[in-house]
Amino acid sequence: MAIKIYGRLSSANVQKINWFCEYANINVINLNYGGIHGKTQTTEFKDMNPNSRIPVMDDDNFILYESNAILRYLSKKFDILVEEKKEISGKIDQWIDWGSFTFAAPCSLLTAHKLSLPQDQRDELIADKAKNDIFSLLNILNFHLAKQDFIVDEKFSLADIPLGIWCHRCVNLEISFDNFPNINNWYIKLKEMNSFQNTVVSAPLPPN
Ligand SMILES: N[C@@H](CCC(=O)N[C@@H](CS)C(=O)NCC(=O)O)C(=O)O
């Protein structure tokens, strides 16, 4: 049975699930919710996620929200990209969190003030500050990737997913990796993956 994912294709948090499912050959039905599609304030949606946020997963009536929880649930359920060694798994969790919170915060802010908010609510100063914060964090990531080809343990893992998506968002927001050669080499590897192309590169931009 296909997994239902409530959430617009342009959402970075939805793309985490779509990319993983495409990589793992898991059937997904995407339902456009959130952004310009709305429908997240309805009672039906709030019964699934009282926070009115996307993505929400429905796996044969098992409802789950929080993108990283969905990612880990599907990884365990289908036994794909499961890491048994607790030290490696700890590092994967560290980078999932860093990508999803520390790095995502200024990326979301820049997205809002460049793409999602109505023109009259966008603020250039907030966007510039977010851009500077992103550059500081890209320095950290670039330094980390000098030592290895992927985020953790020299192979593709769940840790590459949130960071890959947010780095692609940076590219969409005209942030260049010219000064971050190690990130660029890693990003080129991600772009060689069909699953990344089909779910992240080809996705519409927020708020669509
Ligand atoms: N921590 C949550 C964050 C969810 C979230 O903020 N989703 C955004 C989209 S990336 C959202 O629902 N935005 C409102 C909307 O699209 O209408 C998760 O990882 O799932």
Task: Summarize the SSE layout with pairings.
Layout: E1 3-6, H1 12-23, E2 28-31, H2 43-48, E3 56-59, E4 62-65, H3 67-78, H4 86-116, H5 124-145, H6 160-172, H7 181-191, H8 194-201
Parallel strand pairs: 1-2
Antiparallel strand pairs: 1-3, 3-4
The structure holds glutathione.
Detailed description of the structure:
- With 208 residues, the protein is of the alpha+beta class.
- It is built from eight helices and four strands, in the order βαβαββαααααα.
- The longest helix is centred in the middle third of the chain and has 31 residues, at 86-116.
- The protein has helices at 12-23, 43-48, 67-78, 86-116, 124-145, 160-172, 181-191, 194-201; strands at residues 3-6, 28-31, 56-59, 62-65.
- The radius of gyration is 17 Å and the shape is globular.
- It binds glutathione.
- Residues 11-13, 34-35, 40, 53-55, 66-68 line the site of glutathione (GSH).
Essential attributes:
binds glutathione; Glutathione S-transferase Yfyf (Class Pi), Chain A, domain 2; alpha+beta; Glutaredoxin; globular; four-stranded mixed sheet; 208 residues
